[in-house]
Write a structure and sequence with these properties.
Layout (H helix, E strand, L loop, with lengths): L3 E4 L2 E3 L2 E3 L4 E2 L2 E2 L4 E3 L2 E3 L5 E3 L7 H9 L9 E3 L5 H4 L2 H8 L4 E5 L2 H10 L4 E4 L4 E3 L4 E6 L9 E5 L4 E5 L18 H16 L3 H11 L6 E4 L9 H13 L3 E8 L5 H15 L3 E6 L5 H10 E7 L2 E2 L2 E2 L1 H12 L6 E8 L4 H12 L3 E2 L4 E4 L4 H12 L2
Helix pairs in contact: 5-7, 5-9, 6-7, 8-12, 10-11
The structure holds flavin mononucleotide.
The site of flavin mononucleotide has 18 residues, from helix 8, strand 20 and strand 22.
Organism: Schwartzia succinivorans DSM 10502
Family: In the N-terminal section; belongs to the zinc metallo-hydrolase group 3 family.
InterPro entries: Flavodoxin/NO_synth (IPR008254), Flavoprotein-like_sf (IPR029039), Metallo-B-lactamas (IPR001279), ODP_dom (IPR045761), RibonucZ/Hydroxyglut_hydro (IPR036866), Rubredoxin-O_OxRdtase (IPR016440)
Protein backbone atom coordinates (compact mmCIF):
# COMPACT_ATOMS: atom_id res chain seq x y z
CA UNK A 1 0.00 0.00 0.00
CA UNK A 2 1.23 3.44 -0.91
CA UNK A 3 1.70 6.56 1.19
CA UNK A 4 -0.04 9.70 -0.06
CA UNK A 5 2.12 12.84 -0.15
CA UNK A 6 0.14 15.77 1.27
CA UNK A 7 3.00 18.33 1.12
CA UNK A 8 6.59 17.78 -0.08
CA UNK A 9 8.14 15.36 2.40
CA UNK A 10 4.94 14.84 4.42
CA UNK A 11 2.82 11.74 3.85
CA UNK A 12 -0.48 10.29 4.97
CA UNK A 13 0.33 6.70 6.03
CA UNK A 14 -2.91 5.75 7.82
CA UNK A 15 -5.52 3.06 7.23
CA UNK A 16 -9.06 3.14 5.84
CA UNK A 17 -11.69 1.10 7.70
CA UNK A 18 -14.31 0.77 4.96
CA UNK A 19 -16.35 -1.88 6.82
CA UNK A 20 -16.62 -0.23 10.24
CA UNK A 21 -20.26 0.18 11.26
CA UNK A 22 -19.95 0.37 15.06
CA UNK A 23 -17.25 2.34 16.85
CA UNK A 24 -17.71 1.74 20.60
CA UNK A 25 -21.48 2.02 20.11
CA UNK A 26 -21.37 4.99 17.72
CA UNK A 27 -23.00 3.92 14.42
CA UNK A 28 -20.47 4.65 11.67
CA UNK A 29 -22.58 4.21 8.56
CA UNK A 30 -19.81 5.59 6.31
CA UNK A 31 -16.88 3.69 7.88
CA UNK A 32 -13.82 5.57 9.16
CA UNK A 33 -10.10 6.01 8.80
CA UNK A 34 -7.22 6.03 11.29
CA UNK A 35 -4.85 8.71 10.10
CA UNK A 36 -1.11 8.65 10.70
CA UNK A 37 1.39 11.05 9.09
CA UNK A 38 5.05 10.63 8.24
CA UNK A 39 7.40 13.63 8.13
CA UNK A 40 10.72 13.12 6.32
CA UNK A 41 13.31 15.41 7.90
CA UNK A 42 16.68 15.05 9.69
CA UNK A 43 14.68 13.33 12.43
CA UNK A 44 12.04 11.20 10.73
CA UNK A 45 8.78 11.56 12.60
CA UNK A 46 5.55 9.58 12.61
CA UNK A 47 2.48 11.38 13.95
CA UNK A 48 0.15 8.83 15.60
CA UNK A 49 -0.41 5.21 14.55
CA UNK A 50 -3.57 3.23 13.70
CA UNK A 51 -5.92 0.71 15.33
CA UNK A 52 -3.97 -2.53 15.90
CA UNK A 53 -5.76 -4.72 13.27
CA UNK A 54 -4.62 -2.20 10.62
CA UNK A 55 -0.93 -2.43 11.58
CA UNK A 56 0.18 -4.06 8.32
CA UNK A 57 -1.48 -1.29 6.32
CA UNK A 58 0.41 1.36 8.32
CA UNK A 59 3.75 -0.43 7.98
CA UNK A 60 3.21 -1.02 4.28
CA UNK A 61 2.45 2.66 3.62
CA UNK A 62 5.47 3.79 5.71
CA UNK A 63 7.67 1.29 3.86
CA UNK A 64 6.62 2.78 0.52
CA UNK A 65 8.59 5.91 1.60
CA UNK A 66 11.35 4.76 3.98
CA UNK A 67 12.32 1.65 5.95
CA UNK A 68 10.38 1.97 9.27
CA UNK A 69 13.60 1.44 11.30
CA UNK A 70 14.65 4.95 10.24
CA UNK A 71 11.88 6.56 12.32
CA UNK A 72 13.29 8.70 15.17
CA UNK A 73 10.11 10.03 16.81
CA UNK A 74 6.55 8.78 17.08
CA UNK A 75 4.27 11.53 18.35
CA UNK A 76 1.30 10.07 20.24
CA UNK A 77 -1.30 12.83 20.39
CA UNK A 78 -3.83 10.60 22.16
CA UNK A 79 -3.66 7.38 24.17
CA UNK A 80 -6.89 5.80 22.84
CA UNK A 81 -6.06 2.57 20.95
CA UNK A 82 -7.43 3.70 17.57
CA UNK A 83 -4.40 6.06 17.51
CA UNK A 84 -1.86 4.40 19.80
CA UNK A 85 -2.66 0.76 18.97
CA UNK A 86 0.58 -0.02 17.10
CA UNK A 87 3.07 1.81 19.35
CA UNK A 88 4.42 -1.20 21.22
CA UNK A 89 4.70 -3.33 18.06
CA UNK A 90 6.49 -0.54 16.20
CA UNK A 91 8.99 0.01 19.02
CA UNK A 92 9.65 -3.71 19.60
CA UNK A 93 9.68 -4.88 15.97
CA UNK A 94 10.03 -2.04 13.45
CA UNK A 95 11.42 1.21 14.89
CA UNK A 96 14.10 0.26 17.46
CA UNK A 97 15.55 3.79 17.55
CA UNK A 98 12.28 5.67 17.97
CA UNK A 99 11.23 7.74 20.97
CA UNK A 100 7.53 8.19 21.71
CA UNK A 101 6.47 11.80 22.32
CA UNK A 102 3.46 12.07 24.64
CA UNK A 103 1.75 14.61 26.92
CA UNK A 104 2.58 14.83 30.60
CA UNK A 105 1.28 13.65 32.97
CA UNK A 106 -1.78 11.98 31.42
CA UNK A 107 -0.32 10.74 28.13
CA UNK A 108 2.65 9.16 29.88
CA UNK A 109 0.39 7.58 32.49
CA UNK A 110 -2.04 6.24 29.87
CA UNK A 111 0.61 4.83 27.51
CA UNK A 112 2.59 3.27 30.37
CA UNK A 113 -0.50 1.51 31.70
CA UNK A 114 -1.32 0.16 28.23
CA UNK A 115 2.10 -0.62 26.75
CA UNK A 116 4.53 -0.64 29.69
CA UNK A 117 7.89 1.03 29.85
CA UNK A 118 8.78 2.22 26.33
CA UNK A 119 11.19 5.08 25.45
CA UNK A 120 9.05 8.13 26.19
CA UNK A 121 9.70 11.87 25.87
CA UNK A 122 7.06 14.03 27.53
CA UNK A 123 5.81 17.43 26.36
CA UNK A 124 3.32 20.05 27.56
CA UNK A 125 1.71 23.18 26.09
CA UNK A 126 4.38 25.57 24.80
CA UNK A 127 7.04 22.88 24.37
CA UNK A 128 8.61 22.46 20.96
CA UNK A 129 11.63 20.82 19.36
CA UNK A 130 13.36 20.82 16.01
CA UNK A 131 13.33 17.79 13.73
CA UNK A 132 15.64 19.47 11.17
CA UNK A 133 14.14 21.98 8.76
CA UNK A 134 10.92 21.80 10.72
CA UNK A 135 9.74 22.35 14.27
CA UNK A 136 7.04 20.53 16.20
CA UNK A 137 5.04 22.54 18.75
CA UNK A 138 2.60 21.02 21.22
CA UNK A 139 -0.70 22.27 22.65
CA UNK A 140 -2.53 20.25 25.31
CA UNK A 141 -6.27 19.90 24.61
CA UNK A 142 -7.39 18.16 27.82
CA UNK A 143 -10.81 16.47 27.60
CA UNK A 144 -10.93 16.86 23.83
CA UNK A 145 -11.77 14.17 24.44
CA UNK A 146 -9.57 12.40 27.03
CA UNK A 147 -7.37 13.98 29.71
CA UNK A 148 -4.19 13.21 27.75
CA UNK A 149 -5.29 14.67 24.39
CA UNK A 150 -2.95 17.10 22.65
CA UNK A 151 -2.38 18.51 19.15
CA UNK A 152 0.90 19.00 17.28
CA UNK A 153 1.61 22.04 15.10
CA UNK A 154 4.33 22.40 12.49
CA UNK A 155 4.80 26.18 11.86
CA UNK A 156 7.05 25.83 8.79
CA UNK A 157 4.35 23.77 7.01
CA UNK A 158 1.35 25.44 8.71
CA UNK A 159 -0.08 22.00 9.46
CA UNK A 160 -2.06 21.26 12.61
CA UNK A 161 -2.10 17.55 13.46
CA UNK A 162 -5.35 17.75 15.40
CA UNK A 163 -6.00 14.08 16.25
CA UNK A 164 -9.68 13.72 17.29
CA UNK A 165 -10.55 17.43 17.04
CA UNK A 166 -12.28 18.33 13.73
CA UNK A 167 -12.43 14.64 12.70
CA UNK A 168 -15.16 12.64 11.06
CA UNK A 169 -15.93 8.92 10.88
CA UNK A 170 -15.79 8.79 7.08
CA UNK A 171 -14.00 6.27 4.86
CA UNK A 172 -12.73 7.82 1.64
CA UNK A 173 -9.75 7.24 -0.65
CA UNK A 174 -9.59 11.00 -1.19
CA UNK A 175 -7.78 12.67 1.66
CA UNK A 176 -8.97 16.32 1.55
CA UNK A 177 -12.27 18.10 2.26
CA UNK A 178 -12.42 19.65 -1.24
CA UNK A 179 -12.07 16.24 -2.92
CA UNK A 180 -15.18 14.96 -1.13
CA UNK A 181 -18.81 16.06 -0.99
CA UNK A 182 -18.71 18.93 1.54
CA UNK A 183 -22.24 18.26 2.81
CA UNK A 184 -21.29 14.68 3.68
CA UNK A 185 -18.04 15.76 5.37
CA UNK A 186 -19.82 18.43 7.45
CA UNK A 187 -22.62 16.01 8.37
CA UNK A 188 -20.08 13.48 9.65
CA UNK A 189 -18.08 16.22 11.43
CA UNK A 190 -21.28 17.28 13.23
CA UNK A 191 -22.08 13.68 14.16
CA UNK A 192 -18.53 13.26 15.46
CA UNK A 193 -18.71 16.45 17.55
CA UNK A 194 -22.15 15.50 18.92
CA UNK A 195 -21.21 11.97 19.98
CA UNK A 196 -17.60 12.50 21.09
CA UNK A 197 -17.16 16.14 22.09
CA UNK A 198 -20.59 17.60 22.98
CA UNK A 199 -20.01 17.14 26.72
CA UNK A 200 -16.80 19.15 26.49
CA UNK A 201 -17.99 22.45 24.96
CA UNK A 202 -15.99 24.58 27.44
CA UNK A 203 -12.79 22.67 26.74
CA UNK A 204 -13.47 22.96 22.99
CA UNK A 205 -13.74 26.74 23.37
CA UNK A 206 -10.42 26.91 25.26
CA UNK A 207 -8.78 24.83 22.52
CA UNK A 208 -10.29 27.03 19.78
CA UNK A 209 -8.89 30.11 21.56
CA UNK A 210 -5.41 28.54 21.74
CA UNK A 211 -5.52 27.38 18.12
CA UNK A 212 -6.78 30.75 16.83
CA UNK A 213 -3.22 32.07 17.32
CA UNK A 214 -1.87 29.58 14.78
CA UNK A 215 -1.56 30.13 11.04
CA UNK A 216 -3.11 26.96 9.64
CA UNK A 217 -3.14 25.76 6.01
CA UNK A 218 -4.04 22.13 6.70
CA UNK A 219 -5.82 20.50 9.62
CA UNK A 220 -4.54 16.93 9.49
CA UNK A 221 -7.22 15.11 11.48
CA UNK A 222 -7.04 11.71 13.20
CA UNK A 223 -10.20 10.39 11.46
CA UNK A 224 -11.72 11.13 8.07
CA UNK A 225 -10.54 13.75 5.61
CA UNK A 226 -8.16 16.68 6.14
CA UNK A 227 -9.34 20.27 6.04
CA UNK A 228 -7.60 22.70 3.67
CA UNK A 229 -10.34 24.54 1.70
CA UNK A 230 -12.98 24.72 4.45
CA UNK A 231 -10.92 25.40 7.58
CA UNK A 232 -12.96 28.50 8.41
CA UNK A 233 -16.21 26.54 7.97
CA UNK A 234 -15.24 23.77 10.38
CA UNK A 235 -13.88 26.26 12.93
CA UNK A 236 -17.11 28.31 12.70
CA UNK A 237 -19.12 25.10 13.15
CA UNK A 238 -17.05 24.13 16.24
CA UNK A 239 -17.62 27.62 17.66
CA UNK A 240 -21.37 27.28 17.17
CA UNK A 241 -21.57 23.73 18.55
CA UNK A 242 -19.34 24.44 21.54
CA UNK A 243 -21.32 27.57 22.45
CA UNK A 244 -24.49 25.41 22.43
CA UNK A 245 -26.18 27.54 19.77
CA UNK A 246 -29.61 25.98 19.03
CA UNK A 247 -31.81 26.09 15.93
CA UNK A 248 -35.59 26.30 15.80
CA UNK A 249 -35.94 22.55 15.28
CA UNK A 250 -37.47 19.67 17.25
CA UNK A 251 -36.37 16.09 17.83
CA UNK A 252 -39.23 13.61 18.33
CA UNK A 253 -37.86 10.25 19.52
CA UNK A 254 -39.83 7.22 20.71
CA UNK A 255 -40.33 3.47 20.73
CA UNK A 256 -43.65 1.62 20.53
CA UNK A 257 -45.07 -1.91 20.72
CA UNK A 258 -48.47 -1.45 19.05
CA UNK A 259 -48.16 1.99 17.38
CA UNK A 260 -50.19 4.10 19.86
CA UNK A 261 -47.09 6.00 21.00
CA UNK A 262 -46.23 6.35 17.31
CA UNK A 263 -49.63 8.03 16.71
CA UNK A 264 -48.84 10.53 19.50
CA UNK A 265 -45.39 11.12 17.98
CA UNK A 266 -47.01 11.79 14.59
CA UNK A 267 -49.38 14.35 16.14
CA UNK A 268 -46.48 16.08 17.90
CA UNK A 269 -44.46 16.18 14.67
CA UNK A 270 -47.47 17.54 12.73
CA UNK A 271 -48.01 20.28 15.31
CA UNK A 272 -44.35 21.36 15.19
CA UNK A 273 -44.55 21.35 11.39
CA UNK A 274 -47.62 23.62 11.52
CA UNK A 275 -45.58 26.02 13.68
CA UNK A 276 -42.92 26.11 10.95
CA UNK A 277 -40.43 24.18 13.08
CA UNK A 278 -38.23 21.58 11.41
CA UNK A 279 -38.74 18.08 12.84
CA UNK A 280 -36.18 15.28 13.19
CA UNK A 281 -38.30 12.15 13.66
CA UNK A 282 -36.57 9.13 15.21
CA UNK A 283 -38.22 5.75 15.74
CA UNK A 284 -35.83 3.88 18.05
CA UNK A 285 -36.78 0.55 16.42
CA UNK A 286 -34.63 1.69 13.50
CA UNK A 287 -32.78 4.88 14.50
CA UNK A 288 -29.23 4.59 15.94
CA UNK A 289 -28.71 6.60 19.15
CA UNK A 290 -25.77 8.42 17.54
CA UNK A 291 -28.02 9.85 14.79
CA UNK A 292 -30.55 11.10 17.35
CA UNK A 293 -27.80 12.80 19.41
CA UNK A 294 -26.52 14.51 16.24
CA UNK A 295 -29.91 16.18 15.75
CA UNK A 296 -30.23 17.01 19.47
CA UNK A 297 -26.89 18.89 19.30
CA UNK A 298 -28.54 21.81 17.48
CA UNK A 299 -32.27 21.38 18.29
CA UNK A 300 -34.20 23.58 20.70
CA UNK A 301 -37.05 21.09 21.35
CA UNK A 302 -36.97 17.46 22.44
CA UNK A 303 -39.98 15.13 22.83
CA UNK A 304 -39.32 11.58 24.12
CA UNK A 305 -41.98 8.87 24.15
CA UNK A 306 -42.44 5.37 25.50
CA UNK A 307 -45.36 3.07 26.25
CA UNK A 308 -45.33 1.15 29.55
CA UNK A 309 -44.01 -2.41 29.63
CA UNK A 310 -44.10 -4.22 32.99
CA UNK A 311 -44.19 -0.91 34.89
CA UNK A 312 -41.17 0.42 33.00
CA UNK A 313 -40.35 2.35 29.85
CA UNK A 314 -39.24 0.26 26.86
CA UNK A 315 -35.56 -0.75 27.16
CA UNK A 316 -34.44 1.08 23.96
CA UNK A 317 -35.87 4.34 25.38
CA UNK A 318 -34.12 3.69 28.72
CA UNK A 319 -30.86 3.04 26.85
CA UNK A 320 -31.29 6.17 24.79
CA UNK A 321 -32.02 8.33 27.87
CA UNK A 322 -28.95 6.88 29.62
CA UNK A 323 -26.84 7.88 26.58
CA UNK A 324 -28.51 11.32 26.41
CA UNK A 325 -27.92 12.02 30.12
CA UNK A 326 -24.18 11.65 29.62
CA UNK A 327 -24.18 14.70 27.32
CA UNK A 328 -26.05 16.95 29.83
CA UNK A 329 -28.15 18.59 27.06
CA UNK A 330 -28.95 21.74 29.09
CA UNK A 331 -31.26 24.31 27.54
CA UNK A 332 -33.34 21.88 25.45
CA UNK A 333 -37.07 22.46 25.90
CA UNK A 334 -38.34 18.95 26.51
CA UNK A 335 -41.36 16.84 27.39
CA UNK A 336 -42.37 13.17 27.72
CA UNK A 337 -45.23 11.31 26.09
CA UNK A 338 -46.58 7.79 25.74
CA UNK A 339 -49.45 5.34 25.68
CA UNK A 340 -50.22 2.88 28.49
CA UNK A 341 -52.69 0.18 29.49
CA UNK A 342 -53.22 0.67 33.23
CA UNK A 343 -50.49 2.17 35.48
CA UNK A 344 -48.57 4.12 32.77
CA UNK A 345 -45.41 4.51 34.87
CA UNK A 346 -43.13 4.84 31.83
CA UNK A 347 -44.19 8.38 31.03
CA UNK A 348 -43.30 9.78 34.46
CA UNK A 349 -40.01 7.86 34.25
CA UNK A 350 -39.15 9.51 30.91
CA UNK A 351 -40.09 12.91 32.38
CA UNK A 352 -37.81 12.30 35.41
CA UNK A 353 -34.90 11.24 33.16
CA UNK A 354 -35.28 14.35 31.00
CA UNK A 355 -35.14 16.50 34.16
CA UNK A 356 -32.10 14.55 35.37
CA UNK A 357 -30.44 15.18 31.99
CA UNK A 358 -30.74 18.94 32.59
CA UNK A 359 -33.52 19.66 30.09
CA UNK A 360 -36.11 22.39 30.75
CA UNK A 361 -39.50 20.67 30.97
CA UNK A 362 -42.01 22.77 29.03
CA UNK A 363 -45.09 20.51 29.12
CA UNK A 364 -46.66 18.13 31.60
CA UNK A 365 -46.15 14.57 30.35
CA UNK A 366 -48.66 13.56 27.66
CA UNK A 367 -50.34 10.33 28.87
CA UNK A 368 -52.84 8.50 26.70
CA UNK A 369 -54.58 5.32 27.83
CA UNK A 370 -54.49 2.71 25.09
CA UNK A 371 -55.20 3.99 21.55
CA UNK A 372 -55.36 7.80 21.19
CA UNK A 373 -58.72 9.09 19.93
CA UNK A 374 -59.05 11.84 17.33
CA UNK A 375 -59.87 14.20 20.21
CA UNK A 376 -56.72 13.13 22.11
CA UNK A 377 -54.62 13.86 19.04
CA UNK A 378 -56.31 17.23 18.47
CA UNK A 379 -55.66 18.14 22.15
CA UNK A 380 -51.98 17.23 21.72
CA UNK A 381 -51.71 19.41 18.59
CA UNK A 382 -53.31 22.28 20.49
CA UNK A 383 -50.79 21.94 23.38
CA UNK A 384 -47.84 22.07 20.97
CA UNK A 385 -49.42 24.99 19.12
CA UNK A 386 -49.59 26.93 22.39
CA UNK A 387 -45.98 26.30 23.44
C1 LIG B 1 -45.99 -7.29 27.61
C2 LIG B 1 -46.79 -6.04 27.96
C3 LIG B 1 -46.67 -5.51 29.21
C4 LIG B 1 -47.36 -4.36 29.56
N1 LIG B 1 -47.20 -3.82 30.79
C5 LIG B 1 -47.88 -2.70 31.13
C6 LIG B 1 -47.72 -2.12 32.40
O1 LIG B 1 -46.99 -2.60 33.25
N2 LIG B 1 -48.41 -1.00 32.70
C7 LIG B 1 -49.23 -0.41 31.78
O2 LIG B 1 -49.80 0.64 32.06
N3 LIG B 1 -49.41 -0.95 30.55
C8 LIG B 1 -48.76 -2.08 30.21
N4 LIG B 1 -48.91 -2.61 28.98
C9 LIG B 1 -49.89 -2.03 28.05
C10 LIG B 1 -49.26 -1.09 27.02
O3 LIG B 1 -48.52 -0.08 27.66
C11 LIG B 1 -50.38 -0.51 26.20
O4 LIG B 1 -50.92 -1.53 25.37
C12 LIG B 1 -49.98 0.66 25.35
O5 LIG B 1 -51.11 1.22 24.71
C13 LIG B 1 -48.97 0.23 24.29
O6 LIG B 1 -48.54 1.38 23.59
P1 LIG B 1 -47.88 1.23 22.14
O7 LIG B 1 -49.00 0.91 21.17
O8 LIG B 1 -47.23 2.52 21.88
O9 LIG B 1 -46.92 0.10 22.23
C14 LIG B 1 -48.22 -3.76 28.62
C15 LIG B 1 -48.31 -4.30 27.34
C16 LIG B 1 -47.61 -5.41 27.00
C17 LIG B 1 -47.70 -5.96 25.60
Amino acid sequence: MQAIEIKPGIYWVGAIDWSLRNFHGYTTSRGSSYNAYLIIDEKITLIDTVKAPFRDELISRISSVIPPEKIDYIVSNHVEPDHSGCLDFLIHHCCPNATIVTSTPQGLKGLTSRYGDLPYKTVKTGDSFSIGKRTLQFVATPMLHWPDSMVTYCPEEKILFSNDAFGQHLASNQRFDDENDLHTVMEEAKKYYANILMLYGKQAQSALAALSKLDIEIIAVGHGVMWRSHILDIIAAYEKWSEGELEDSAVVVFDTMWESTRKIADAIADAFTEKGIRVHFHDLRVAPFSDVITDILTSKYLAVGSPTLNNQMLPPVAGFLCYLKGFVPKGRKAFAFGSYGWGGQSIAQVDAELKAAGCDIILDPIRIANIPTEKDLADIREKIKNL
